[in-house]
Amino acid sequence: MRWLRPLAITALCASIAACTTSPTGRSQLLLLSDEELNNMGSQAFSQYQQELPAAGQASQRYVQCIADAVVAELPQAQQQLDWQIRVFEEETPNAFALPGGYMGVHTGMLDIATSQDQLASVVAHEIGHVLAKHANERASTQSATQLGLSVISSTAGIQSEQLMGVLGMGAQYGIMLPFSRRHESEADTIGLQLMAQAGFDPRASVTLWQNMQKATSGGQPPAWMSTHPSQGQRIDGLEADMNNALATYEQARNNGRTPNCPRP
């Protein structure tokens, strides 16, 4: 039964050293090394760059400015990654961040995120996936439940669509294979604090999802049919954490964190 899977993973976590906790304190099963995940991220990013054209330099500078401000608030180990930020010419409003410090944003997202603060909420959310090692958890859970305890030890021989699926992204021009609802909600929580620490207004995250609601009105399936939380659920979750985020934001502004990234 479906409910047996989380019980099995919990029991496995309790018995092996691969069990750890996420930034929010949630138990995780992580069987892959950072080196393995980073290699997978590099391979997927290279594949993506082959499939989509790069956007203009003005859009690149804009997104880079926002990403730099958020990355500056990461733990030291993640700051030291060679973060590579690319803007892709694609109308689908998507973005992603991969293990190893690779990030992509579609120009379609710039149409939805109409301010630097709104786009910062997207960037911080995607980095939240990396901080919480959701790709590792996804791959490890699949490995433990479908292949016993056989761990993916090399990316050799893995098809690009399989690789991108494990990493939570799609091979076809930005059609994202979603993380679980739990992962998405956790990335929202982490991202909200990250953007606030960087001096971006966390209230813009709610505006972003309101914009997304308008853009996808009539086209979104019910929440129970999707692995993503509904847009309304995401807004509710963000608002529940907003007081703490606003306090962080005010402190960041008082400490001189006032990012100014000109929109092209």
Automatic annotation (TrEMBL):
Entry's cofactor comment: Binds 1 zinc ion per subunit.
Keywords: Hydrolase, Metal-binding, Metalloprotease, Protease, Signal, Zinc
Signal peptide: 1-17
Cellular component per GO, a single term: membrane
Molecular function as annotated in GO: metal ion binding; metalloendopeptidase activity
Pfam families for the chain: Peptidase_M48
Cofactor: Zn(2+)
InterPro entries: Mito/Outer_Membr_Metalloprot (IPR051156), Peptidase_M48 (IPR001915)
Example of a GO biological process term: proteolysis involved in protein catabolic process
Domain named Peptidase M48: residues: 59-239
Domain of life of the organism encoding this protein: Bacteria
PROSITE patterns: PROKAR_LIPOPROTEIN
Record family assignment: Belongs to the peptidase M48 family.
Name of the featured protein: Peptidase family M48
